[in-house]
Design a protein that fits this description.
Two copies of one chain form a homodimer. By secondary structure, chain A is α/β, with parallel strands linked by helices. Chain A has two domains: 51 residues, Helicase, Ruva Protein, domain 3 (Orthogonal Bundle), CATH 1.10.8.420; 140 residues, Dna Topoisomerase Vi A Subunit, Chain: A, domain 2, CATH 3.40.1360.10. In chain A, 45% of the residues lie in helices and 13% in strands. The first copy, chain A, has eight helices and six strands, in the order H-H-H-E-E-H-E-H-E-H-E-H-E-H. In chain A, the strands form two sheets. Chain A has a four-stranded parallel beta sheet. In chain A, helix 1 crosses helix 2. The radius of gyration of chain A is 21 Å and the shape is globular. The termini of chain A are far apart. At the A-B interface, helix 1, helix 2, helix 3, strand 2 and helix 5 of A face helix 1, helix 2, helix 3, strand 2 and helix 5 of B.
């Protein structure tokens, strides 16, 4: 039956984050109505990405090599710690950063029964010791779990004489105070700086 | 380079309707972070749909056969005329409809240089004559082009003694009058019916 084949494709599109039935249907029709080469290319890109992209064995970044280009070429004395590989892409928009990364693959979350041993903290510790790291920048998300994880790691690393910093929290550039939430505003107020 | 492979996948997702860079990136990461089998299934579903699904040679519906199941099994005396194959899926939600369909693959649009000969009107005409059709329901979109196309086809078909009808236009069920546009309201008022 033709509907089963279309439904199968719709079901696949529904597995994408935030995609409901209607959207998945639109995507599926755009494939069916599109050119053959486009569907081929699309399918091949999915397979190729899944087959070739793995995680860097040093930092956990996405890569098709054993060690990612960032780890190979940049200053290993500064490590920016993130929750997920895709956070590296966000951080990389800050062109001035020349250090390396470390992906935790999660945050400490008692609610979800995820403790310090379930994320890559041990690996971070040994990198800090082996590479004589000078600064660890905690760039986990500014939420309860991200904060708790940052605090936990700071407590372990500080006795080793490493500087541990946290991304500043405050109002976003270009945003409107009217829409800033209470917590963000209170953090921004706490961390206020002199204008000189 | 790993980024090229990921970028290639992101570019493919961007070809889907309404998908910008950020969304495409989220989709791509969900593939890379997901299981191998999921990526395989996804890619295969795309290829299979594109390879096997074509158009019914009678009505233009999506099908993996020469003639679609609707054309094979339903009342051919009533034809519902739609603009695109996917409109059939919408109409099919109305479980009570037992007639067949005809896809025009477009509407008459002087602005886009699309005349009556550029859409499947000739094919409709020969179906009406060969199958002794009793009613043609024009279900093109309720916009300028859809209306014009419906009028044009009605003019051709009426001399053949076929009843030509148009989907009723009015306020949508469950909608709020406050948000109904002028044109819809005026159509709804024009076509008002006695309550008995």
């Amino acid at each position: 039956m033709q509907e089963d084949i279309i439904e199968k494709l719709i079901e696949q599109f529904r597995t994408l984050p935030g995609v409901g039935y209607k959207t998945a249907q639109r995507y599926a029709f755009s494939i069916i109505e599109g050119k053959n080469e486009r569907a081929e290319k699309f399918a091949d890109a999915i397979k190729e990405a899944k087959q070739k992209i793995g995680f860097c064995k040093v930092c956990g970044n996405f890569t098709d090599q054993e060690v990612c280009p960032i780890c190979k070429s940049r200053n290993r004395k500064v490590i920016c710690v993130v929750k997920e590989p895709k956070d590296i892409l966000s951080m990389e928009k800050v062109k001035s950063y020349n250090g390396v990364y470390h992906v935790l693959f999660g945050t400490i979350s008692p609610l979800e029964h995820r403790g310090p041993n379930d994320i890559k903290i041990k690996e971070l510790l040994s990198r800090v010791q082996n590479d004589k790291v000078e600064e660890v920048i905690m760039a986990t998300n500014p939420d309860v779990e991200g904060d708790a994880t940052a605090m936990y790691i700071a407590k372990i690393l500080k006795p080793l004489g490493v500087r541990v910093t946290r991304l500043a929290q405050g109002v976003a550039m270009g945003s409107d105070l009217e829409y800033a939430d209470e917590l963000t505003l209170s953090k921004a107020l706490e961390a206020r700086r002199d204008i000189d």
